[in-house]
Amino acid sequence: MKNNPKSMIMGMGSAVPEKVLTNHDLEKMVDTSDKWIRERTGIEKRHILEEGKTNSDLAVDAAQRALEDAGMSAEELECIIVATISPDSFFPSTACQVQAKIGAVNAAAMDISAACSGFLYAMNLVDKLIGSGQYQNVLIIGSEVLSRFTDWEDRATCVLFGDGAGAAVIGPSDGEKGILSTYMKSDGRLGYLLHLPGGGATCPTSHQTVDQHLHYIKMAGQEVFKHAVRTMVDAAIHGLKRSGHQVEDVDLLITHQANVRIIDAVAKRVKLPKEKVFINVNQYGNTSAASIPLAMDQAKKEGRLKKGDLCLLVAFGGGFTWASSVVQF
Ligand code: ACO
């Protein structure tokens, strides 16, 4: 039985910094090669936020484009959620910074920390908030400046990440379009495979933590790869089961953009042909919580997501966290 959507995407927008860092640029910084990065990850370049700007600046650019696309003013917003693991600061939240910068004086604002699954976690929660009648106009943003938390001396991680932001205004469904299913899961036992050890209450900032590079992303790449494929397949299957669709009904699969080999493996296991799979990790690298909305916005603009299309959104990230949504456009 098909679900009736309670909420839908009313507008979308995205933003990436102007500065581009290519694989060839990285060849001059660490012992790597354009060939290795392309073959192992599919990444060709990534965007890096310029000094003097911060996460909320990128988030604001994406948010303003999404508001314009939705034909809505900032004052009309009732809630703002920013999904990020690279916030402006521990507190106040990046969402509060965005609220102040866009003048959304009537909104509640908060951040969500679910790494690369953050945007789908936010969208799935907002679907319930709107379904309950609590809110009508909600802005969600996935925004990251992982370049500030990347060890530029560690070739195993620094070639992977990029900065960017994507935003969506979510409101009540018109009855046909909208979010048809939501699915979220976590496994905290795997947290040690992908983490940023320094600066929190466990390991407060000290000269020692700085000397030991503990304020940067640490990752067991191969282990993360395996779990990424397994969890995104799980999320895809459960998302479709909950929306009452078969994989053949899907017009476009948008997964978290971490590595083209991970995306290919997921598509193969859920039996979706290449032409139904959106890929832009080659242009942006892994932008964590920004990756899904960045891809959705680009897919819409390029005509890959048209009115009436069924889109399967699937993400995984540190935590571990994983999630999916089936959305009728
Ligand atoms: N350039 C050249 N060589 C490199 C580089 C590099 N940048 N990085 C590692 N190598 C070397 C390794 O040292 C190793 O050398 P060795 O065989 O002499 O020991 C060799 O390349 C192979 O390394 P692997 O780690 O086995 O390479 P793999 O094929 O697994 O690719 C990668 C590594 C790209 C990191 C892959 O494992 C991956 O994509 N993992 C998942 C990453 C991911 O999705 N992270 C999600 C983060 S999302 C979030 O929540 C923030």
The gist of it:
With 329 residues, this protein is of the alpha/beta class.
Cα-to-Cα separation, first versus last residue: 19 Å
Number of strands: 14
Which percent band covers the strand fraction? 15-25%
Overall, the morphology is globular
* Major sheet size, sense and barrel closure: 5 strands, mixed
User: Largest sheet, order of strands side by side?
Assistant: 1-7-6-4-5
Summed up, the helix count is 11
Short key terms for the protein model shown above:
329 residues; alpha/beta; Peroxisomal Thiolase, Chain A, domain 1; five-stranded mixed β-sheet; 11 helices; 24% strand
Task: Please explain how this structure is put together.
- The protein is an alpha/beta fold.
- The protein has 11 helices and 14 strands.
- The protein has 2 domains: 7-175, 3-Layer(aba) Sandwich (Peroxisomal Thiolase, Chain A, domain 1); 180-328, Peroxisomal Thiolase, Chain A, domain 1.
- It has helices at residues 23-27, 34-41, 55-70, 94-102, 118-131, 155-158, 207-211, 221-243, 260-270, 281-284, 291-301, and strands spanning 7-15, 20-22, 45-47, 79-83, 108-112, 138-145, 163-172, 178-186, 194-195, 218-219, 252-255, 277-278, 310-317, 321-328.
- It has a 5-stranded mixed β-sheet with strand order 1-7-6-4-5, with helices on both faces.
- Strand 13 (310-317) and strand 14 form a beta hairpin.
- The longest helix is centred in the C-terminal third of the chain and has 23 residues, at 221-243.
- It is globular and about 55 Å long.
- The protein starts with 6 loop residues before the first strand and ends with a strand.
- The structure holds acetyl coenzyme *A.
- Acetyl coenzyme *A binds at residues 32, 36, 40-41, 115-116, 155-156, 159, 194, 219, 221-222, 224-225, 228, 258-259, 262, 286, 288, 317-318.
